[in-house]
Amino acid sequence: MNAMTYRGYAARIEYDADDRIFVGRLAGIKDIAVFHGTTVDELETAFHETVDHYLEVSAHTGRPAQKPYSGRVLLRLDPETHAAMAVAAELSGVSLNQWAVSTLKEAVQH
């Protein structure tokens, strides 16, 4: 995955072959916050400056900065899948929430 993280924010990174620069955009928020650099060090510095600036502007204007994610997820499943997950969790000796968190973490690490 081409991503960077800083102060709880993540950015998706792409390479622009035409301009020969790395371009990043904050992920998980609706506000537009982009940055770029020609080297990894420049890109990382620009990312940190962008996040810091975003938070400063939010504080200055009184408009709360958007948080990337709250950590809460609501899933709508068919009853059979819900039941199978509950059984898998019980057989693993953990709550359904713990089982789902563990399973989802494992899935996104691949």
From TrEMBL:
GO terms for biological process: regulation of DNA-templated transcription. Pfam families: HicB. It comes from Allochromatium vinosum (strain ATCC 17899 / DSM 180 / NBRC 103801 / NCIMB 10441 / D). This is HicB family protein.
